[in-house]
Amino acid sequence: MTLARVDYLIFALYFGFVLGIGWLLKKRVATSEDFLTSGRSVPVWITSLAFIAANMGAQEMIGMCASGAKYGIMTAHFYWVGAIPAMLFVGVFMMPFYYGSRARSVPEYLKLRFDEKTRTFNAVTFATMTVFSSGISMYALGLLFELVLGWSFASSVLLSAAIVLAYTYLGGLTSAIYNEVLQFFLIVLGFSPLAILAVAKAGGWEGMASRLPPVMTHSWKYMSNSAENPMGVEIFGLVAGLGFVLSFGYWCTDFLVVQRALAANSMSGARRTPLIAAFPKMFVPFFVIVPGIAAMALMKMGLGYNLPVKGDSYNYDLALTTLMAQFYPSGMLGVGLTALMASFMSGMAGNVTAFNTVWTYDIYQGHIRKGAPDSHYLRVGRITTVAGVALSVGAAFLVQFYNNLMDLLQLVFAFVNAPLFATFLLGMFWKRATGHGAFSGLLAGTGAAALTHGLTVAEGKGGWLGAVHQFPSTMAQNFWIAIFAWTTCFLVTILVSLLTRPRPVSELHNLVYGVTDMPPLGGARWYQRPGVLAVVVLVVCVILNIWFG
Amino acid sequence: MGDLRTPCGLFFTALGVILCALGVFFPGTRAPLTEANVNLYSGITMLVFGGVMLWLARRSA
């Protein structure tokens, strides 16, 4: 596709605004906490939208549209079974401990609750992971823009990294969060016309359903047997693996998202952040997944629209951009591609701001230099921002040269992440859990994940220790790896905790359920109460599941 | 900058103006698969959104 001059003008306008917001927020940064944690001063509507925008990276947008084309409305399970319940849980049950402990990061909570080694394990793996995941998504963006627009890989990677660096360096977390809100609106307004146009052209939901196999337009009907649905998963693996272990592990313990809630200006704001975010999150499938399904229906209509072929199947990753080329004229096309760029930037800024906080507070202040004046840590935070972006760019080029590295890294991250939620669940709700218990649980859980992968095979992946079991798809394999890792971590943490000396209850104040002053709710209006919001979200989410079941 | 609504409002108003202008002065610019004047309708939506943001910012100032 070729862009007109007006499309470039829209790109430039967007770049001008994100840089301008960074520039205007520069004078708000006086201390390291202003820079790295927003000084806990951001209004709740802003933290809420940033909470979902930080997760809406370009890979998410492109990938969810691709999965829509490949699997159909079943992809919505990642939202309606995965994200929503976990977002409700973190807001209602976990935020009192995160926010109440005054920890500046998720690893720091582990230090307060357990010990230094548990914190360091989490901090180091998280920091490595954020650098590589922003590198990987930068790589995906560079590749896409090269393929679609003919821009050189290096220049789109360097340009987008430079802009993210500029605004996060200037205004720190506040700047990243404020821009994430702008980016969120742009993503919604830039992508939703595409959904409307594509669905209308394909004859509405009815028209799509009549042109596609029924498995594409039903999310639950074919889940009872893994052989009947293209994802190759069955209900237990889906609900326990994705809905419970993986989603709770991500939304409840990943500092990238939790950091947004911690920036809220009150306990009540921090708790409501994921709950308010859940409202728009529920409807994201309609403008990212549904266009992918519409693309498949359009291909059956003889309109001349076809997804490019890659190997022996379609190149689903191009669903989003090929649809834009078919439905957006110059002008709106610029907006659509800018929205894609915006989603990439919100994801990358999320990674960078989480990375610099964990590095500065959990690794540098924890191990390299303790007790320096705050101005020193502010400087370290700024330098880390530059280093984080540089490392991400390096990772993007590394992945470009060694394609297999990406698969390997994503596998290792999956091993490390899978057991995490068991550690936090026991840490927050069981006074008896000890540091030794948590640490050995995490190691054992990670080991169990690797072992499960080594002993099972799916689509030719895994089985490096011998094939004991065959999964119908890698997705099913991932869900079951998560289930085994979580269960191992849960059991080992309990066992080792019972064998080691507990911490005195007096040290656990504001860290564990039962010895924490739960925030009072008196006087709050109904729509400000976390419990009420959570119930409303849950009801709407159940209705969506039934409607598209 | 105390209020994010102002820059947000300005950005979407500017986008809306550009798209509406395209839609009005070049109504023949169409994408392959649609008959709709996409620029005009999207532009109006963005103008409305930007306007509401600016109005909210003014009201609370």
Structure description:
The complex is a heterodimer of chains A (549) and B (61). Chain A is mostly helical. In chain A, 72% of the residues lie in helices and 2% in strands. In chain A, the strands form two sheets. Chain A has a three-stranded mixed sheet. A two-stranded antiparallel sheet of chain A has the order 1-2. In chain A, a hairpin with a 2-residue loop joins strand 3 (456-458) and strand 4 (461-462). Chain A starts with a helix and ends with a helix. Chain B has helices at residues 5-25, 38-60. The model of chain B has no long low-confidence stretch (mean pLDDT 90). Chain B has 61 residues and is mainly α. Chain B has two helices and no strands. The chains are: A mainly alpha (549), B mainly alpha (61). The interface between A and B is medium-sized, with 34 and 27 residues.
Order of helices and strands of chain A: HHHHHHHHHHHHEEHHHHHHEEEHH
| Count of helical stretches of chain B | 2
The assembly state of the depicted protein chains is heterodimer
Sketch the major β-sheet of chain B. none
User: Radius of gyration of chain B in whole Å, from Cα?
Assistant: 14 Å
CA-to-CA gap between the ends of chain B?
A: 12 Å
- Nearest-angstrom radius of gyration of chain A? 23 Å
Q: What is the chain-wise order of helices and strands of chain B?
A: HH
Envelope shape of chain B: elongated
Task: List segments of chain A where confidence is low: pLDDT < 50 over at least 5 consecutive residues.
Answer: none
Q: Could you tell me which chain pair has the largest interface and how many residues each side has?
A: A-B, 34 and 27 residues
User: What's the helical proportion of residues of chain A?
Assistant: over 70%
Averaged pLDDT of chain B: 90
Distance between the termini of chain A: 37 Å
Counting helices, strands and paired strands, the structural category of chain A is mainly alpha
Strand residues, percent of chain A: under 5%
How many β-strand runs of chain A?
A: 5
Principal-axis shape of chain A = globular
